[in-house]
Amino acid sequence: MFKKILIANRGEIACRVIRTAKAMGIKTVAVYSDADARAPHVRMADESVRLGPAPASESYLKAELIIDACKATGAEAVHPGYGFLSERESFAKALAKAGIAFIGPPAKAIAAMGDKIQSKNLAVKAGVSVVPGFIGEITGEKHAAEIANGIGYPVMMKASAGGGGKGMRLAHSEAEVREQFDSVKREGLASFGDDRVLIEKYVEGPRHIEIQVLGDQHGTVLHLGERECSIQRRHQKVIEEAPSPFVDAAMREAMGAQAVALAKAVGYYSAGTVEMIVGADKSFYFLEMNTRLQVEHPVTEEVTGLDLVEQMIRVAAGEKLSFAQTDVRMDGWAIESRVYAEDPYRGFLPSTGRLTTYKPPVLRYAGSTASPATQDERSSQTPLILSSGLSEAEGRVSKEPRIRVDDGVVEGGEVSMFYDPMIAKLISWAPTREEAIDAQIDALDAFQLGGISDNVDFLSALLQHPRFREGRLTTGFIAEEYPDGFHGAPADEILMTDLAAIGALVALTYATRAAMVDHQLGEPEFPEATQVVRIGKRDFEVAVDPYDGGTLVRVDGGDEVDVIGDWAPGQALLVVDMDERKRVVQVARKGRDWLLTTRGAAHRVSVMPRHVADLTRHMIEKVPPDMSRYLVAPMPGLLTRLEVKSGDTVEAGQPVAVVEAMKMENILRAVKASTVKAVPAKAGDSLAVDQVIVEFE
């Protein structure tokens, strides 16, 4: 076994690998760019080595620097994580030449499967079904249009060496192919150093289901079941689960057999994933093989009891797998949500900056209810993952729901514009899918983030959606269910009533404490027990009657609700029982109002006496300024292209500028026909959010 390994990555996955290595008694070496000098993975490792400046092309993508770091520290092996150099054949070969083990598959398998064009050819030879498309090299925009016309629309254009949703465009017409082809080439070159593109038929209404494979260097290859990855936005996975609610035992066996056959055909070992597109009739087609550890690997770990990182390390050290295919069992249900630094209320624009608040949820479960645990308890609540076998007696004993957080950030840390915007992965496990969903929603309610925008509300809304809970998923789920964007999860009548009660309770607690402050002039004025609570344009009359150990609350003259729980001014999280309902609500003061965030939406709440509520109806609402004359930067980023100049006329939907952020190109379009009055920005500018790029007449 290795004595020391280097992790050629950053963030969450670097921390994940370090944790397993430490548990195995292996020393670890972290590498970092200038942007990550004080990052958690650097502090967790036994040693660390600086690679270079913040841009990945000058640090994490420099194979020679990583090899130098191995030589300087005596690291015997490298775990690449995912992204960066994890699927570079040249990196695996360079390590082998330097006498350093690569904790991953052989270089020839990376070359064969990492290239989408070559992998499709190999899949056909191995008897694996593939999606109809053009397998070959495309010479240019005109050639791409001819191919797409021949296949029939819609088509998907993909960077041949791509992955992670980057370098992918869906085209419904020849015009869209011609418009987007060059963007796919540029993104492929920027992210993967390869600008080749493939085009294939887009299967409408599909599911995205993948098979986890694991092999050793002695010829054994197994599959560890499937993951449902259909909930995607712009081809980037958002929520994953294992098993799939769509796959039965026979289908799992058939998909697994094809995945294993493909892996064996290229002499594969280590962990890998065979991605498939699945039709409503349960037909399935090979998409690609990821020759690395997937972001979503924790859901497989949670249902199989295997630590995939440990298995990869053991395989790289030459050990045989200690179990057979018949030993693999899927126990319970696991769901993973990807928490991103992005604003779902503004079209999912990336968000960068300092994490002023970062308190991930740690929940202890008693039956079907959950309450926050202390931060000190978090370290003792590691996921129950077996090390090298699958025996029930060795580990997975408890059948209570559990929460796991895989992250690589800390409060006060920076979310950088140079890297992927993922903050953390939130994983829930439970005996059933419904319980796993509910545990995930509870945990999202308790996830406290500040300083940047995040997608927690959106994740909660997805999990609450009736169609998701029923398992009726396709890769078009988000586009179909949120065609006009995301505006917060809808609140039912029970939740609205509970929020009114909580709002009154919070406001009266705050006002009562203020009234009891020492050394005030005159007698303290305590708030009235009955208040009007305004949520949006709706008013609730709430009567509050505290007693020793709780509070009785009556909303709009209805039945009394017994509210049990403590909250003090300044606390960001309120946890109460309302009769038999558990509510976990984040509380923030906003001027004279309160912001109550729970169940996928933030609700602005005003609490006031009746006479004040009546008077506020006569207040004039402030009208927001008209910004339709300006094209502004929706996110911090680099202005790579400007398509117009002063005096030009534009039509609605016409591309005006391209902003690159988080390694993705974002095309900004004119919202209406107009004439360009001024262009205060120029190509090459680094833009701040809301900075004016173009002014129209």
Features:
697 residues; alpha+beta; eight-stranded antiparallel β-sheet; globular
Which SSEs are present, and which pair or pack?
Elements (H helix, E strand, L loop, with lengths): L3 E4 L3 H13 L3 E7 L6 H5 L2 E6 L10 H11 L3 E3 L9 H9 L3 E2 L4 H8 L1 H10 L7 E2 L6 H11 L3 E5 L8 E4 L2 H19 L4 E5 L5 E9 L5 E13 L2 E7 L6 H17 L4 E9 L5 E7 L6 H8 L3 H9 L16 E8 L1 E2 L5 E2 L2 E2 L2 E3 L3 E4 L2 E4 L29 E6 L6 E2 L6 E9 L2 H13 L2 E3 L5 H9 L1 H5 L6 H5 L11 H23 L14 E6 L2 E10 L2 E6 L4 E5 L8 E6 L2 E10 L2 E6 L2 E8 L1 H7 L13 E3 L4 E6 L6 E2 L4 E7 L2 E6 L4 E5 L7 E2 L4 E5 L1
Parallel strand pairs: 1-2, 1-4, 2-3, 4-5
Antiparallel strand pairs: 6-9, 7-8, 7-9, 10-11, 10-13, 11-12, 12-15, 13-14, 15-24, 16-17, 18-23, 19-25, 20-21, 22-24, 26-27, 26-33, 27-28, 28-29, 29-30, 30-31, 31-32, 32-33, 34-41, 35-37, 35-40, 36-39, 37-38, 39-41
Helix pairs in contact: 4-5, 5-6, 7-8, 12-13
